[in-house]
Design brief:
Layout: H1 4-16, H2 21-28, H3 32-39, H4 47-57, H5 61-66, E1 69-70, E2 73-74, E3 83-87, E4 92-96, H6 98-109, H7 112-121
Helix pairs in contact: 2-3
């Protein structure tokens, strides 16, 4: 089970700060492969590693785990609180804003033509 938001943040923050996986892994004193597993969601870092990662990027643990982050700061920081969701096939955790929950709920209620239009707009 992985945290989708955490994995996305690790990737985005690293690339926004122009770090390689090797550079971050060296700062954390872990292998590049171990760090890669965090970015792909194959493994979840332990608390000590999470604290050190948050320190590297100057974000809080909550921001790192639950909010979309970029090198420029928190994305949508005023859109909380977040609701926990789970991707059914992989059991990955994702945190959703109230607006995102409403969007998903309305998508489920829409007829097939509206769903198709939504997918086209979102380039899915």
């Amino acid at each position: 089970m992985s945290n989708i938001q955490l994995a996305a943040n690790l990737r985005r923050l690293r690339t926004d700060h122009d770090y390689t996986q090797t550079q971050i892994a060296e700062r954390l004193n872990i292998s590049r492969q171990a760090y890669s597993n965090y970015e792909t969601g194959k493994r979840i870092p332990d608390l000590d590693i999470l604290i050190r990662i948050a320190d590297i990027y100057h974000v809080t643990l909550e921001e790192l785990i639950m909010q979309p982050c970029s090198g420029a700061g928190i994305i949508n920081q005023n859109s909380g609180p977040y609701y926990i969701g789970m991707e059914i096939t992989s059991a990955d955790t994702i945190y959703l804003t109230k607006e995102e929950v409403e969007l998903l709920t309305r998508y489920r209620e829409a007829d097939e033509d509206d769903r198709m239009l939504t997918r086209k707009v979102l380039k899915m």
